Amino acid sequence: MNIRTLRSDQIYQKVAQASPGEKLELFRNEMMAPFMKQWQIQQIPFRAEEAHGFDVITFNSMMHRSPDQITRQIAPEIELISSESFWSECEDAVKKSLHLFVEHGIELPVSDYLFTIQLGNPESRALVINEGYSGFGGIPGFIWGTILPNEYTIPRMKASLAHECNHNVRYQFIQWDHTVNLGELIVSEGLAENFATLMFGEELLGPWVTRTNAETLNRRIKPILREQLQLTGFDQFAPYLYGDEIAKLQNFEPVNMPYSAGYACGYYLIQYYLRKIGKTIFEATITPAGQILEEVKGFWDEETIISG
Questions:
Q1: pTM for the structure as a whole
Q2: β-strand 142-147 against 133-136: which pairing, if any?
Q3: How far, in Å, are 18, 62, 119, 132, 261 from residue 122 at the CA level?
Q4: Number of CB atoms found within 10 A of residue 69's CB
Q5: 242 and 260 in contact (C-beta within 8 Å)?
Q6: pLDDT tens per residue, the chain (308 residues)?
Q7: I want to staple 22 with a disulfide (CB 3.0 to 4.6 A). Which of 18, 46, 92, 283 is the partner?
Q8: How far apart, in whole angstroms, are the C-alpha atoms of residue 26 and residue 52?
């Protein structure tokens, strides 16, 4: 297994020193180009044919520092993600996460992986709602972390990367296409967060779970989501997964759901499944959502107890 780290801190330092006219292409070629295969899979143009068209830079700048924001003024931010210990911890999280699947008998079809950590855009409301950190790992072979670096987020990056590695493994076995439904996303997020807590403990459980209490989960979230599991179309199921506030930011119709409703529901649904079936998180990660949901019908009627 070949796991490569793209040291974004070094790229940020170069871009910060570059002249305004050089920043864009320097950033595109050094930060975006190594992920070319991902952009092709996502059908995002690497370079817009016209000056104001949509491309990887436009897409990336929605949640991350754009090239023109990478100046000497953000040197303290860059410094916070420049230590050898930070990158070593992140790399260890990715390596350990992926190797654990192999150790548990899961033969991974993908052998080459690339990961990096990007500075988040402090003006991204979605990132602020997520308490300053996030990630993306849905395209096999490519893993991203996003961070507004501070004392709270930096220790949590390793758990976020473990979460994304779980997605990365799952989607080597589960086909993602237009038929993907809300049930799959709830299961997927539940698997990823349970894997992250297995790796690094419940003290690093993400806010997408911890901010939901038992009353909200049992009375408000579960009765609605159980009826929407077959819902397809990202614009249709995203509000149930992320909640109304983030849905509105994405110009989706709100559905009266609290923050990260689908994530919290998925976390406890997968805990129920693992207890009931006795499978490991490794086996469960590559199990189709339909099979998991068939086994957890009792979850929807049982009161979920949230400790702490």
A1: 0.97
A2: antiparallel
A3: 22, 11, 9, 8, 24
A4: 18
A5: yes
A6: 999 999 999 999 999 999 999 999 999 999 999 999 999 999 999 998 755 689 999 999 999 999 999 999 999 999 999 999 999 999 999 999 999 999 999 999 999 999 999 999 999 999 999 999 999 999 999 999 999 999 999 999 999 999 999 999 999 999 988 889 999 999 999 999 999 999 999 999 999 999 999 999 999 999 999 999 999 999 999 999 999 999 999 999 999 999 999 999 999 999 999 999 999 999 999 999 999 999 999 999 999 999 86
A7: 18
A8: 18
